[in-house]
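Design review, sub-item: ligand-bound model
Attendees: FS, YL, KQ
YL presented the inputs for the guanosine-5'-diphosphate complex:
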Amino acid sequence: MKITNAKFHTSAVSVENCPPSELPEFAFIGRSNVGKSSLLNMLCRHKGLAKVSQKPGHTRLINFFVINGEWTLVDLPGYGYAKAAKSERYRFNDFVADYLESREELSHVFVLIDSRHSPMKNDLEFVSWLIEIGVPFSLVFTKSDKLRKGKIEANKTAFLDAMKEFSEGEPPTFITSAENGDGRAEILRFIGEKLRSGI
Ligand code: GDP
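KQ shared the predicted structure:
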């Protein structure tokens, strides 16, 4: 898929606030500083689309971008700066949990993982919760330019192994770099295929 048009649509602070839409939504989420804004800008080839955070935790809004008038890219707040957990919910604000649990338009979630780290508890907990609520997702290992291929593969395998504790299948995975554009074509192809198959 080629992105010919990427337009900021709106921000929302609650699910009631989310724009009515008939377009399928592809959401991106990860720990703060995982490289989400950089990845979104890289995907859309639009430097200022999502703000690369100087002040971590600054954005707690859900941002909606309409792509090619065909689908919506949803930029979810990073989980590092979320409010404390409610018993069974994951540790981000209730609004994000509400969005993930109830948004009809949501087609797929890309969970960003920093490829430099061995599996982190909060990433695993989040993914486990997504499985529990039945939301389809992929894993995106970011900042791949920062380390050797062998090390990235090792961290990815370790994450998938850790997931076996609570999951039978393996999700699709992508390895990306906002620096050199790695993974861009693969993610866009994946979204294109989902759109064609009418998910
Ligand atoms: P966010 O908080 O998840 O939106 O993360 P940002 O996109 O703001 O990135 C956090 C920091 O990591 C910034 O200093 C970015 O320049 C840097 N960064 C993000 N993606 C990459 C990448 O793919 N490669 C490298 N080398 N640095 C990155």
